[in-house]
Amino acid sequence: MTAFSPEKTRDALRRGAAGRLLLGLLSFAYSGGIAARRLLYRKGVLRSRRLPVPVICFGNISSGGTGKTSTVVTAAMELARSGRRPAVLLRGYKRRAPHAAVTILAKGRPATLDEAGDEALMLYRLLEPAGVPVVVSSDRFASGMAAVTELGADILLMDDGFQHFAVQRDADIALVNATAPFTADRVLPAGNLREPAAGLARAKAVIITHCEQVSQDAVDALRADIKRCAPAAEIIESMHAPEAFIDPATASQVDLGSLKGRGAVALSGIGDPDSFEAVLKKMKIDLKQIWRYPDHYAYTERDLAAARQARGGLPLITTYKDFARFPPGWQDLLGGGVLILSVKIVFLCDGWIKLMRIVDGAGRENA
User: Quick count: other Cβ atoms within 10 Å of Cβ 82?
Assistant: First the structure.
């Protein structure tokens, strides 16, 4: 059960000298385009606008998954608990509404998958209990203004957008996956980097995620590499830990130990499937089959019907982000035994205090 992915095309090109040359030339051109665009913003040729409330950006220099969403959710909920009125801004990747259209997910303002996109729906489901709205548009200034004027937001968290310079920020937070360090990677399309590693210098903080999956020596080496690129940045270590299984048919929690030593299948279409699967294996779940789709893949009825037939009655484990893209009638297509793995981010040492000091402090300085 496979689908086309750019990574497979890139891997195929890497096997030949001509393909490697082509990828290298394309990466060179891509890097040049990034540098030129950044220069145009610095010189004022392209306009960067400031919103009336503080903006904190959480982003990556790589295109793979880093655990950014978990960090945004945790920070937004903490701000809400402290009395702030945060809103989360999202681009709405692969949604079917016009990219510049503003879609608001808030109490009494529901939106469909087509209008909002899978990430926005997943985010809002996690943030709804705390009353934190999610606003979707490729025009981050327009979505930010809507959050302020229509929802009364007093601080904005931009989920993704480290390379988005059209809106000024009060702090940039970059996340780096410890299992995929940028030092061993190249700029797109030859590698997964959205920009050269020197871009980390813009960050006030760099969060190393998934530290639980590598050795401390590897984390220390990555810290040293980050320090060379971003000497002024606060470096924070974190890990992702499973929190519970969610049965979407009943919206109830299922104990994490319920599948220990038992067989199951895993289905995902996310930026970092390795980390998702590694967590399940660490929980001593015997994964009989693993199905991977491209990030943001829109599941079809045929996909789910095929999964039901192939899983042989075993529990099927997926992610919040994937479940948001299941088509209507998913329960009839898949049958019972579907579980969503809920994961939380855990900051090591005093990392959480340092992060919130930057996030809330930058906000209060300019509020």
Answer: 10
Backbone φ, ψ for residue 239 (5° rounding): -140, 160
Burial of 329 (0-12, 13-18, 19+ CB in 10 A): exposed
Q: Which two tokens stand for residue 107?
A: 């109490």
Read off the tokens for 168: 């000024």
pTM: 0.89
For residues 112 and 48, what is the distance between their CA atoms, to the nearest angstrom? 31
Total count of residues recorded for the chain: 367
pLDDT of 329-344, one tens digit each? 999 999 899 999 999 8
Domains of the chain: 6-42 (no CATH), 55-240+346-366 (3.40.50.300), 241-344 (3.40.50)
Compute the chain's Rg from CA coordinates: 21
Distance CA 120, CA 124 (A): 6
pLDDT in tens, 125-137: 889 999 999 999 9
